[in-house]
Automatic annotation (TrEMBL):
Transmembrane segments: 12-31, 37-58, 79-100, 151-168, 175-193, 213-230, 242-262, 274-295, 307-325, 337-358
GO cellular component, one term: membrane
A single GO BP: lipopolysaccharide biosynthetic process
One Gene Ontology term of the molecular function aspect: acyltransferase activity, transferring groups other than amino-acyl groups
Pfam families according to UniProt: Acyl_transf_3
Lineage, highest ranks first: Bacteria, Bacillati, Bacillota, Bacilli, Lactobacillales
Descriptive protein name: Acyltransferase
Region spans: Disordered: 409-455
Compositionally biased region (Basic and acidic residues): 432-441
Organism: Lacticaseibacillus camelliae DSM 22697 = JCM 13995
Acyltransferase among keywords: yes
Lineage top rank: taxon: Bacteria
């Protein structure tokens, strides 16, 4: 029997880091003249993601005796990544089709490459620039390259992790090997820059490439081997706390200075600047992961928690809102404060709606709920068919009922006459599965009129319309 495992600790300070990251990106997109290095916020997301994914792998590997539940992992990643991604792709595509038809060029390829998590490579192959701010016909999807890199990491890293765990016997060696891979990626960025960019040009190839950007995710992964969240002491001696908070302060100050001043066209960025920023982020992640530090408590405030938990949605919705808004209002430069405030407000509203009604329901949907949802789709979305409540008509006469517009009762049998006892709905599961049939046996025969079936949805089991349906025959005549 599997021993009980402590629940994974929620690190609230990471919400604060995500907040800093997403604010940096938005300010860079809105006012690149004032926040030249805001794009570096993406590196914060990468380091945090690499740390959390690998930290979870280490715990599961130890718990499962050297195995990973890859099906469970990929399922969670799909539920986390795709619902909002599909929403922004569909929503923005619909807007383009209706109001911005000049953006229809390559739209189907953009959507497909995003869904396949290779959009960053499609951008490289098609010469798409990240740095032409609001150029004519700029795609509202240009920022989604980050999701493709994360998706590729999710696919590849579990197998590299297992290989490291099998071949290397200590976490110190695993840390060193992973950092070696990260530094190799950073070195490759420098080499490519020296080979292709010394004469000037657009550095988008270096900016988009998985090979030249994976180092931030790998640095977070490396940290998890030697700084596992579950083994960090909740309290530390004063000198240790002061040391950690001091490291965090130095890292935070240097990162803020970079976010404000490091231009996306600076040669220093590609010759070690991004790698250096990721190392600073790695240090700050280590400090915040410790439950004993002041930095962890400082970044766990309610405002940062709210923004941080919605940072994924804020990130993916922000660029379409900016593109569409600023294409609609051409005089953006005349309102350098008002219009950005309006755009941010729209982004936050859309992100909150997405978080409540799309991302959270999708993240918590269970396999039984998916099965129940599939059954509902198979039976016309109601778990049954509607049949008329007049004359001797049965479910075979539904077309006549539609023509007459009369109310009807639900027929489970897919063609049984109205006097027949409906069969229990397949796929219900749980203790109610057999009860429906029992209730229906004595509910009503032909002499009592049709059976009105009522569908009860349990609040505990119902999310986003995915419900275990409990069917109960009332024995009342049709309405």
């Amino acid at each position: 029997m599997e021993s009980a495992q402590p629940k994974r600790r929620y690190i609230g300070g990471f919400d604060g880091l995500r907040t800093i990251g997403v604010i940096g990106v938005i300010l860079y997109h809105l006012r690149p003249d004032l926040f030249q290095g805001g794009y570096l916020g993406v590196l914060l997301f990468f380091v945090i993601s690499g740390y959390l994914i690998t930290d979870g792998f280490v715990r599961q590997y130890d718990r499962e005796g050297g195995k990973l539940k890859l099906g469970q992992f990929f399922g969670k990643r799909i539920r986390r990544l795709y619902p909002a991604l599909v929403t922004v792709l569909l929503g923005a595509s619909a807007y383009i089709g209706l109001f911005a038809r000049d953006l229809l060029v390559n739209l189907h390829k953009i959507v497909i490459s995003n869904l396949a998590l290779v959009y960053n490579w499609w951008q490289i192959a098609n010469g798409q620039s990240y740095f032409e701010r609001f150029a004519h016909n700029e795609s509202p999807f240009v920022h989604l390259w980050t999701l493709s890199i994360e998706g590729q990491y999710y696919i590849i890293w579990p197998f590299i992790f297992l290989l490291l765990m099998k071949l290397l016997k200590t976490n110190g060696k695993r840390f060193a090997a992973t950092m070696g891979l990260a530094l190799a990626s950073g070195l490759w960025m420098l080499v490519l820059y020296r080979m292709t960019m010394l004469g000037g040009g657009d550095p988008s190839r270096l900016y988009y490439g998985t090979d030249t950007r994976i180092f931030a995710l790998l640095m977070g992964s490396a940290l998890a081997f030697v700084w596992p969240s579950q083994k960090l002491a909740p309290d530390l001696p004063l000198p240790s706390r002061v040391l950690l908070d001091g490291v965090g302060t130095v890292a935070a100050v240097a990162m803020v200075a970079s976010l404000l001043n490091l231009s996306d066209q600076s040669s220093a960025l590609y010759e070690g600047g991004m790698v250096g920023f990721s190392l600073l982020a790695m240090a700050l992640v280590a400090v915040i992961a410790s439950p004993a530090t002041l930095w962890g408590k400082l970044l766990s405030n309610p405002v940062f928690h709210w923004i941080g938990t919605r940072s994924y949605g804020i990130y993916i919705y922000q660029f379409p809102v900016m593109i569409f808004f600023e294409n609609a209002f051409r005089n953006v430069a005349d309102h350098p404060v008002l219009y950005p405030v309006i755009e941010v407000a729209i982004i936050l509203v859309i992100s909150e709606l997405s978080y409540r009604f799309i991302e959270q329901p999708a993240a918590h949907v269970t396999k039984p709920q998916l099965q129940a949802f599939w059954q509902r789709l198979r039976h016309g979305g109601t778990g049954g068919r509607f049949c008329p409540d007049w004359g001797d008509a049965g479910c075979d006469d539904c077309s006549a009922w539609r023509r007459r517009g009369r109310p009807g009762a639900v027929c489970q049998g897919g063609g049984k006459r109205r006097g027949s006892a409906p069969e229990s709905q397949p796929g219900n599961g749980g203790p109610e599965k057999g009860r429906a049939g029992k209730d229906q046996e004595g509910a009503a025969g032909p002499e009592k009129g049709p059976v009105l079936e009522q569908i009860e949805q349990s609040k505990q089991q119902c999310r986003f319309g995915l419900c275990q349906q409990q069917v109960r025959a009332s024995g009342q005549p049709g309405l």
